[in-house]
Amino acid sequence: MRILVLGSTGYLGGHIADRLRALPGVRLLTGGRHPDNDLRVDLATIAPSALAELVELAAPDAVVNCVGAAGGGALALVEANSRGPAVLCEALHSAAPTARLVHLGSVAEYGPTILGEQTPEEAPARPVSVYGASKLAGSLAVAASGLDAVVLRVTDPVGPGAPRAGLPGRLTAELRDALRLDLPGPVQVDDLSAHRDFVDVRDVATAAALALTAPRPLPPLLNIGSGHAVPVRDLVHGLVRASGYRGRVEEALGAVGRSPAVPWQCARITAARRELGWQPTHTLHASLTALWSADGAPARELR
């Protein structure tokens, strides 16, 4: 089975590529802007006809699209998160119409949800940020494409290799600097009062692998999360404990961001369990330990 992973050098894409390499009978192809990719392609700018030519040569049986942007302004977000999936779908229609497409969406597409409840796939999507709106447009393009396609709407990923663009990766880097330079602190963070559904990046990779190889057509949308919401404060304090950092963590209460607009996120994951036979296997404890230990730093016991 030939599987093309677009965005294989990113956080989610890298873990998904590693997971697929371990599957018997899979020939992995990578696509993106990195020089080592099998297909040198930028979904934000390439024409559908040019992408179709590359896809036809690659002849994939399945494609997973991990390409996306989380920052860089409205234009960059729309080009990567909205235009990219639409161009990919058009190219697949002409070059690989029977290939299964697994597209990674985002929980930000939902926007505000009901406090204390799990959000099902049929809940209305009302994103409050350009990022969420751009991801939603891309997911809608995939859902309306007529391809054998599924959108995996992923909650907040955490685990080894988390990038600095998100809170787990940024805080990890700041704690490493504080310990390396023996800085007394404080380490400053934004308002941590929101509740989030943190899912281990390795569990996301397993879900993508199952979706790519499922023997039957899948629903157009599946939530991928832990099914539990925890205060963001729990993640921060857990990571601090894992690091052994003894300085203060200073929280900017009421800081402006998406948390005040979306105080609660928690995905219902029963459909993914039913359709994929998937369930998360890593606890937040395990995710934070793996995140801190990823670069060889010993993790303290989390209590």
How is this structure best described in words?
It is a single chain. By secondary structure, the chain is α/β, with parallel strands linked by helices. The chain has a domain at 2-160 and 199-226: NAD(P)-binding Rossmann-like Domain (Rossmann fold). Helix content is 39%, strand content 17%. A 7-stranded parallel beta sheet has the order 3-2-1-4-5-6-11, with helices on both faces. A two-stranded parallel ribbon has the order 7-10. Strand 1 (2-6), helix 1 (11-21) and strand 2 (27-32) form a beta-alpha-beta unit. Helix 2 crosses helix 3 and helix 5 (167-180) packs parallel to helix 7. The chain is globular.
Number of strands: 13
Number of helices: 10
Which band does the percent of strand residues land in? Answer: 15-25%
User: SSE string, helix = H, strand = E?
Assistant: EHEEHEHEHEEHEEEHEEHEHHH
Highest CATH level, the class of the domain at 2-160 and 199-226: Alpha Beta
Label the CATH architecture of the domain at 2-160 and 199-226. 3-Layer(aba) Sandwich
* Low-confidence runs of at least 5 consecutive residues: none
Strands of the widest sheet, in order across it, are 3-2-1-4-5-6-11
Please, what is the CATH homologous superfamily of the domain at 2-160 and 199-226?
NAD(P)-binding Rossmann-like Domain
Can you give the mean pLDDT? 94
Distance between the termini: 44 Å
The residue fraction in helices comes out at: 25-40%
Largest sheet: 7 strands, parallel
Q: What sort of overall outline do the alpha carbons produce when their principal axes are compared?
A: globular
| CATH fold annotation of the domain at 2-160 and 199-226 | Rossmann fold
Rg from C-alpha positions?
19 Å
Give the structural class. Answer: alpha/beta
